[in-house]
Amino acid sequence: MGKNQKMKKLKNKPVPKEEEEKEDVVVVNGDMDSDDGSIPSPVVSDDEEDDDYEGFSDSDGSSKNSDSESGSGSEQSEPSDDEDGENPSIDGGSIDGDDDLNQEDQSAGSDDGLSDGGDSVDSREVVDESDSSEDEVETRNTIGDVPFEWYKEEEHIGYDKAGRKIKKKERMDKLDSFLARTDDSKSWRTIRDELEDEDIEITKEEFKTIRRMLKGKAPHAEFNPHPDYVDWFAWDGAGHPLSNAPEPKRRFIPSKHEAKMVVKYLRAIRKGLITFDKPKEKPRYYNLWVDDPEKPGHGLSYIPAPKPKLPGHEESYNPSQEYIPTQEEINAYQLMFEEDRPKFIPKRFTSLRSVPAYEKSVKEFFERCLDLYLCARARKKRINIDPESLKPKLPSRKDLKPYPTTCYLEYKGHTGPVASICTDPTGQHIASGSHDGTVRIWEVETGRCLKIFELGEPVKHVAWNPVPELPLLAVSMGQDVFVLNTGLEKEEHKMIADLLRVETSTTPDESESAVSSISWSQYVKYDGVRIKHFKTVSSVEWHRKGDYFSTVMPAGDSKAVLIHMLSKKLTQRLPFKLHGIAVSSTFHPSRSIFFVSTKKHVRVYDLLKKKFIKKLEPGVREISSLSVHPGGDNVIVGSRDGKLCWFDMDLSSKPYKILKSHPKDITNVAFHRSYPLFASSSDDGTAYVFHGMVYSDLNQNPLIVPLEILHGHKTVDGRGLLDCKFHPRQPWLFTAGADSVIKLFCH
Amino acid sequence: MPKHYRPAGKKKEGNAARYVTRSQAVKYLQVPLKVFRKLCIFKGVFPRDPKKKVKGNHHTYYHMKDIAFLKHEPLLEKFREMRSYEKKVKKAMSKKNKDLAERLLTRKPTYTLDMLIRERYPKFIDALRDLDDCLTMVHLFAALPAIERESIQPERIHNCRGLSLEWQAYISRTHKLRKAFISVKGIYYQAEVDGQKVTWLTPHALQQVMPPDVDYKIMLTFLEFYETLLGFVNFKLYESINLKYPPILDPRLKALAADLYALTRYVDAKDQTSGTNDEESELRLAQLQDQLPSNEPGALMNLVVNAAFVSEDDEETKACKTLFQNKTFFLGREVPRESLLFVITSFGGVVSWEGDGAPFDESNQDIDYQIVDRPTQSHKFISRDYIQPQWVFDCINARLILPTEDYMVGKVLPPHLSPFVDNEAEGYVPEYADTIKRLQAAARKEILPMPGAEMDDLDNAHLLAEGIIDRAEAKEAAERKRKMAIDEKQFHQELKMEMKGMQQTADTSEIKKTGEEDDADDASPKQLTNNDEDMAMLTMSRKKRGLYNAIQISNQRKKANVDTLEKRKKNLKKNKETSSD
């Protein structure tokens, strides 16, 4: 055999060959998609199949040789290859052995391999090729490197050297081949090689090899993966070490690294980082509080946590029977809100031994811990006082008599809520205006209705002229204000008639200085004057001299508050800017000062000097009414949130006292003209009477004592009392209710 | 311009400058929240409520001074050091530098809380004042199992147990226990140390429930502080009775889990020796005094000191000391030994128990009381009483040897009442409290009339004359009187209403005078009294009115509680009567 042939043999190693054949099998079976690993070919088999195969192969041992002889040349060469691998033949084996030796020599580092250098180079080449060129299997087929399917339809497969077509072998049709397979007991281990166009039968040894490979072992049965180590070097009599190099210098001088480490340790020891003797055990505890403390803390006061609550009788393991809630009560707890539910439900145990561990003990202490470090602490004064001592000491009400206490008279006759009442300056009569459109005049002492003015529209406000000689009544109703002659004073009828006469011609002339949109006219139905406004008039108030009166139109903007002069039939607007919607106005009882209340504030003006004096800030939601003390220095203001504010004009612009008495709107407040009394009426159907003493000594604050709550009126449509007025001379209070009754409360 | 506009460069003022939220504080201190929490717990820093909460209502606010106080704490630096140390060890381990890691492990940074305790409690009395939570926690942990998962180490449990027993040994030795109460939650004890009432709760000696929704880290941080605190307090207390601390215990007893007994024995032994020493020295002093001139100051001083030491026990301590004196107890196997041992010895009794290490056994002839907690006792010695454990607790709370009939084995026990309740302030006196009071009075050779006797008596003056005003009863009497007055008033009012109604019916048609003059006068004073309260309320300021209302509400609630109790009692009585009939 030449070298080339040898190479070829080496190339035809059995392992790759098998793989190729496997691939072929795939092709034959037509499973084009499947991979190598999942071949359903007879080769890949279970253990049982293996057993079968062995049984078969034993029986077919004789026929195998004949098969192989009849097979192609390449197949013949395979067993010989096997033989090569297992026990090298004379020609190939020597080279292989050399090769091995060479490699070992090189690994040992000896120079012996130089002598047969050329040969070794050759052999190495051979080995290299055999390792790498497994794909270059020489085939007899000459189709070249083209896809096999190109020849699928053709009769030939490739060409020979002369260029003639190589005919495909006659293929049996399916039935024949199946019959042949069933007949032939060896058919299961024949594989068709499509490329070479031949059937290949796999031998028993080959099967064994494949099986070993499948198990991940070396293909050869005799290959030992863990051979004993053979020490090829002959040690006997060797006087010198393998390397005869002299000892390097570094082995004789002290190590720099070690010196570094020594220094490092030294430093660590000096620093005390490394200690060799254990430190003396200091006693863990000692007397911490020997000397007096130095200045404590950081300036902030330490607030100790409150101590946990001490247990009561109900926490006992064996409480009295009455501490244990009944079953109904326990059920009732379930209906409670979670916060209200009792945290602890008492239980009774008959003996100490039956008491179980409390399941919430850890949880409760944990919550205590959280409280200790997460809860904001603040010092709270614990007040342990009799609640009665909180109440202010008030002078006895008996000493403050007289004041109205009981309902003495009722004036009935109105059919609608009585919006406003007013007493005449002598105190003999009262006038009342109602939503039923009438104004009635009553005799106070008898309760007789003297006169009825039917005006047609709901009356807003009535006001009696403060001069006793002029029995005039100002009535506001819708957009009109009437000044009516009540006809109660007979003698000075002339003067009254003068006052109430309106010359129609003069009105427009004088309107330059006054307000143009106001017209004075004679009221024909009753004896009186009609002053037509441009917006709804809410209230009318007389000046003390009885000539001027003021009207308030809340929607009147800059002309909201007007001052009328009856004698000249003149109208003036208030020469000040009002900040807000006007609610009511009133004159000072003795000086030329004018009070206007807007919804938020009370403004005080000097009419003579035409100056703004003061703004009173009650700080309530909405002012509803206003009254001035007859002394003139104190003002009370009622508000829609039920608060009554007392202002001392000399003291401050803030209230001196706020009385939160009514739960609903205060509709009116009133001072008594001579007695130290004031009252407030409210929509809750009650009137409060207060004692309000103002001292002439400026240093003494006014004394305010609540005296009486007057009940009696019914509430109608959420409205209770609409007005209250004091009798000018007696400590009596008139109240007008939404139930269309006027009541007189006497002392 | 916004409402809270502050020009740039102008410092914050007021609450905005004085208080910071927690997250601000954490940022300011540059520590993780965990460390901040720990510091707060150790330093006793707590949030405070500013008048105006600048950042909103849902934040916790700390005072800036508190935070500055934390910032200057050396412990803060220590925590940082520990953190960096941990990083070093981790790094060494991950680099497989075992050498370095080992060396690092030998010098782990440690810290102590000694100075913090000194800082928080400048005087010993301050520490005693704040000891309640500390004792409760230590006793609780002494009863808990060690859990690796929650890093509750067995050493800490042991330490807690040791500390709690040392405390108990001191209290029982000095007879400072005043009250004890078995509740469902555990056993409450109250001792009086240096005039301070210290109350603590020990859980029942059973397997404790460990809820999962508890952050044990927080509890352990608290425990760390409390352990140190109790250690120092114990040291100081032991020093005050001339004992060495920590005590060295008999290992045999310790092994038998009779630690408390071992401790008490240790304490007693030491005390005896010291006592004999004292006596000796006193003798020698007396001898010396004969020889010395009488005006030698030193000797006198010494004598005075000794006398002072003797008279240090106040009245109450003496009473406590002698309650169970010369009484011998034997504890059954089933009763909580530790608790009873503690209680009985602190009230001067001698105790033994069934089991190993007991000083004497059951057959001892000296035993006066055997405490058992079982349905029946089969073998009985005639010379002793077999009683249930509640007897001991009731006795010490009443400071009286109660008759044992009610507490015998198998009997239904009388109710166990809390000694912490002021019955009179509460407004309800349980029946058994009355019985005990009568017994106490009897012991003091005073005679209290039987409960039924003065029930009918409504006259306060009469009670006064007898010189035994029971506050509650007096109150009751007064209440009855008031009730009668109210009834009377109501009657009058009804009369008046009737009159009015008649008047109203009379004046429907025409307007006429209503009512007679004298009738109005008659009615007015009643109305006066009725309205007086409302009138006074009117002039009260809003603050006071609120306070008044709050007081009224709380009073009502209290009264409602008492009412329910009384109602239940009445029902029970009724049920009993019906069942007996």
Automatic annotation (TrEMBL), chain A:
Residues 1-146 are annotated as: Disordered. Required for maturation of ribosomal RNAs and formation of the large ribosomal subunit. One of its GO terms (molecular function) is ribonucleoprotein complex binding. Keywords: Nucleus, Repeat, Ribosome biogenesis, rRNA processing, WD repeat. The lineage of its organism: Eukaryota, Viridiplantae, Streptophyta, Embryophyta, Tracheophyta. This is Ribosome biogenesis protein BOP1 homolog. PANTHER family: RIBOSOME BIOGENESIS PROTEIN BOP1 (PTHR17605:SF0), RIBOSOME BIOGENESIS PROTEIN BOP1 BLOCK OF PROLIFERATION 1 PROTEIN (PTHR17605). GO terms for cellular component: nucleoplasm; PeBoW complex; preribosome, large subunit precursor. It is found in: Nucleus, Nucleolus; Nucleus, Nucleoplasm. It comes from the Eukaryota. Residues 151-404 form the BOP1 N-terminal domain. One of its GO terms (biological process) is maturation of 5.8S rRNA from tricistronic rRNA transcript (SSU-rRNA, 5.8S rRNA, LSU-rRNA). Residues 45-57, 128-137 have a biased composition (Acidic residues). InterPro entries: BOP1/Erb1, BOP1_N_dom, WD40/YVTN_repeat-like_dom_sf, WD40_repeat_CS, WD40_repeat_dom_sf, WD40_rpt. Belongs to the WD repeat BOP1/ERB1 family. Its main location: nucleus.
TrEMBL record, chain B:
Its main location: nucleus. The keyword Cell membrane does not apply. It is found in: Nucleus, Nucleolus; Nucleus, Nucleoplasm. Coiled coil: none annotated. GO terms for molecular function: ribonucleoprotein complex binding; RNA binding. Keywords: Nucleus, Ribosome biogenesis, rRNA processing. Residues 499-581 are annotated as: Disordered. One of its GO terms (biological process) is maturation of 5.8S rRNA from tricistronic rRNA transcript (SSU-rRNA, 5.8S rRNA, LSU-rRNA). Residues 319-409 form the BRCT domain. Pfam families: BRCT_2 (PF16589), Pescadillo_N (PF06732). GO terms for cellular component: nucleoplasm; PeBoW complex; preribosome, large subunit precursor. It comes from the Eukaryota. Belongs to the pescadillo family. This is Pescadillo homolog. It comes from Artemisia annua.
